[in-house]
Amino acid sequence: MPDATHTSAEQAAQPVTVKPLVEIQGVHKFFGDHHVLKGIDMTVKPGEVSVIIGPSGSGKSTLLRCINLLETLSAGRIYVHNDLIGYREVNGKLHDLNTKQIATQRREIGMVFQRFNLFPHKTALQNVIEAPTQVKRQSKAAAKLKALELLEMVGLSDRANFYPSQLSGGQQQRVAIARALAMEPELMLFDEPTSALDPELVGDVLEVMKNLAKSGMTMIVVTHEIGFAREVGDTLTFMDGGVVVESGNPREIIANPQHHRTKEFLSRVL
Amino acid sequence: MELIDAIPVRHPWRWVGAAVILLVVILAIQSMTTNPKFYWGTFRTYVFDVLVIQGVGWTLVLTVSSMVIAIVLAILLAFMRQSDNPLFRYVSWVWVWFFRGTPVYTQLLFWGSVGVLYPKIILGVPFGPELLSWDTATVINATVAAIVGLGLNESAYLAEIFRAGLKSVDNGQMEAAEALGMRRSKVMWRIILPQAMRVIIPPTGNETIGMLKTTSLVLAVPFTLDLTFVTNALASRTFLPIPLLMVAAFWYLVITSVLMVGQYYVERHFGKGVDNVMKAPVKVPPPAAADPIMLPRGNNLA
Ligand SMILES: Nc1ncnc2c1ncn2[C@@H]1O[C@H](COP(=O)(O)OP(=O)(O)O)[C@@H](O)[C@H]1O
Ligand SMILES: [Mg+2]
User: Fold this and answer.
1) Measuring from atom 13 of ligand 1, which residue has the nearest CA?
2) Residue bearing the bigger pLDDT, A4 or B8
3) Quick one: pLDDT band at residue B280, thresholds 50, 70, 90?
4) B212 pLDDT exceeds 80?
5) Cα distances (angstroms) measured from residue A189 to each of A29, A54, A193, B21
6) Tell me, what's the pLDDT at A38?
7) Is B126 inside any structural domain?
8) A34 lines ligand 1 (CB under 6 A)
9) Chain B interface, mutation test: which of A134, A172, A186, most B Cβ atoms within 10 Å?
10) What average pLDDT does range A110-134 have in this prediction?
11) Is a pLDDT exceeding 80 seen at residue B302?
12) Is B9 part of any domain?
């Protein structure tokens, strides 16, 4: 677990020697002829909340999906905790990891989806214990104990035995967060976690994410919630057309965007 | 508060329709009971005849065992079809192509004559020494031939049903499970297949009931103990085909009804969380849950 005591101010004052948890280096992604990511560089330090914003189609989801191998890179490298994601490098030559090794890498990375993707045939509790029992081979009792703790943390201990279809969108998303946390990842990816929610349900999910950030979790969050970026984010990255247009302190960028595309985008979402 | 007590819309034509249907049913029953050519006495003599009951038993054995084989193979074939491994995909495709593309009667004839084609089953190194060998006739007797023949043929049809079922599950399910670090085979088995079952069961129930009737083709093997063969044999012995047709029809209907009851429960099992969600526990939230001071994160009682 990363150090839980950083505040944003301390984070900014940290010496640059802190080893990044996530290093994205010159990442390109093609879908056929479609050049979606055009050389992305980004680092995320342990305990940092890195917020990515940008217009629809700018490649934000694709970038997140590359980090946990739901997409394969066309070029570049991604390291999480010094582990090269997706490959083994031997004498400068890349070798694909096999499915088992890929699964192992993914266990360290939690992902929360825009559309929750809870398992509809399992209750909230069963959703949360699925991976710990099936992947980590934890005993059911131990996994349950931990799961109830996590459900309590997201404010849903009284919904443990409910099926996803019996939960509101906001509740489903909080279960999804608990499910990802149950694997005790060192990095959490959020892909527009509140975009599919009714406005009055957004707050609860953001609250859970805020608490998670406070507890020291390293997070990469794609969102349109500028308030969240300003309040919780340690860095803000603005992407457009598959490139990083601007990146830095969220409060500074939001108050005073340097690039006209950033300015234009912010004026539309604020 | 005044509860609404509205007068429902009347449906007079439904009553007319019901009366017409009732009349037709009564006439049919009357004609069947009063027409001596149905020989209901003969029906009563044979409906619980030992040979007939044994025939029912064998038909059930054939239906259930061939469906079990077919379902196991179909799951395997459907998984193979979705695999990253091109060899698996190709083998699965060819299997379906072959077993759907040839008549089941022909396939049963083939399994019945394997013993003629290959008198011995030999386990050994190709062009090398024999390790083990059996007489084909003892390994593939008529029962095995009938079950294997029906099962392999059916697996091809079921494989397509299972494939459609697997495809009906949202892609996000696979991604969510893989993002948790689950291996693909585990995801298929624990996440995708259980959800696909909702789509798979109704047509599979259809296929099972179809199989019940298809078992009558096993005379091609030849297998001579199933319900149709037995009632046909009794019919030619007694020279009374109609009552023995009725006996067979009666038992096929009974078995179909039992299968339909089974299907109801299987459907209910795999529909959990999606169908009839009101039946799941709905716990009244404790009073504190409504208190924003107790739960600062808020709690949507949606
Ligand atoms: N699987 C895919 N195949 C082809 N094109 C894709 C695929 N996924 C995403 N894209 C394209 O990549 C671009 C970026 O998509 P995405 O990363 O989802 O953007 P964002 O999340 O920023 O809205 C879009 O133009 C989209 O159409
Ligand atoms: Mg997106």
Assistant:
1) A57
2) B8
3) very low
4) yes
5) 19, 16, 10, 63
6) 97
7) yes
8) yes
9) A134
10) 97
11) no
12) no
**Chain A residue at shortest CA distance from B197:** A121
Residue minimizing CA distance to atom 24 of ligand 1: A57
Give the dihedral sign, CA A255/A65/A1/A86. negative
**Is residue B137 included in any domain, yes or no?**
yes
CATH of the domain at B69: 1.10.3720.10
Q: pLDDT tens, B101-116?
A: 999 999 999 999 888 8
Q: What is the ipTM of this complex?
A: 0.90
Ligand 1 pocket, mutate which of A36, A70, A114, A189 (most atoms under 8 A from CB): A36
Cβ within 8 Å of A, B 74-93: none
Q: Identify the three-state secondary structure at position A83.
A: strand
Q: Is the pLDDT of residue A106 over 50?
A: yes
Calculate how far, in angstroms, residue A165's C-alpha sits from the geometric centre of ligand 1: 28
**pTM score of the predicted model:** 0.86
Residue-number span of the structural domain to which B102 is assigned: 42-270
Q: How many CB atoms lie within 10 A of CB B110?
A: 15
Asked if the Cβ–Cβ distance from A183 to B181 is below 8 Å, we say yes
Total domains in the fold of chain B:
1
The response to whether residue A95 sits with its C-beta less than 6 Å from ligand 1 reads no
pLDDT score recorded for residue B140: 79
Check CB contact of B152 with chain A, cutoff 8 Å. Answer: no
Does B152 reside within a domain?
A: yes
Helices (H), chain A: 8-13, 60-67, 99-107, 124-134, 140-153, 169-181, 199-214, 226-232, 250-255, 260-269
Q: Does residue A113 belong to the interface with chain B, where contact is any CB pair within 8 Å? A: yes
Please state whether beta strands A187-191 and A218-222 pair in parallel, antiparallel, or not at all (unpaired). parallel
A163 touches chain B (CB under 8 A): yes
Atom of ligand 1 nearest to the CA of A55: 22
pLDDT in tens, A175-205: 999 999 999 999 999 999 999 999 999 999 9
Average of per-residue pLDDT values in chain A: 93
Determine contact, residues A253/A223, Cβ cutoff 8 Å. Answer: no
pLDDT at B289: 40
